[in-house]
Amino acid sequence: NLNIFDVLSSTTMNIIKSVKIFDYLVQLHANNNREWFNEHKKEFKKKEEQIKVFFQQLNGQINQFDLIDSYKVFRIYRDVRFSKNKTPYKTHFAATFHRQKPELRGGYYVHLSPNNQSFLAAGFWQPNTIDLLRIRKELEIDATDFRNIINETTFKSIWGELGGDELKTAPRGFLKDHENMDLIKKKMFVFKKQFTDQQVYNDNFTEKVGITFKAILPFFNYMSEILTTDLNGESLI
User: Which of 161, 154, 160, 159 lies closest to 213 in space, CA to CA?
Assistant: First the structure.
């Protein structure tokens, strides 16, 4: 009897490697213009359908250990209105998976790109002003549990160091010399794990994605508890 990981990892091989998703993206990178893209529109549509199947299957896998209320596969078209880079198309496929709100917070992100540029990310990307202040206030009071979770041996071996943009100095209303200022000045709380093309093509890639994402749950659940309660621990939902 095959478990869900066995089934999906074999499917990963069929979709990502067998249909040569990366080969297409390399060609798109070398011909990032509307003329070439329109000439190869049928090929793109086929690749898009195939990669959507992969993300749909991945959504099913994540739901084996978490509750996902929605996921989004990003369009290939770039918004060039405010960008110096005017190339019209992205040279990767990506999707984001959102946990079931309001009780569960945080999200998963998958980025598939050739030349060893694929990665997974998880956490809180650009939290809104209210959520960010709530997190900072919690860290101001006590960051012991937060640090214990992100420094736990298995967690750290999988996800490495906490990333995300941060302020150069203390946010308004917080002491500059606070012992937890390294965390308080964060503007986002994200983790990232890089993958080589060979790892993505491996039969066990989807299983690896599942193991990697499942490892973030202690962090997600801790942050969800913070964001669904006030500073007195009273529920906000």
Answer: 159
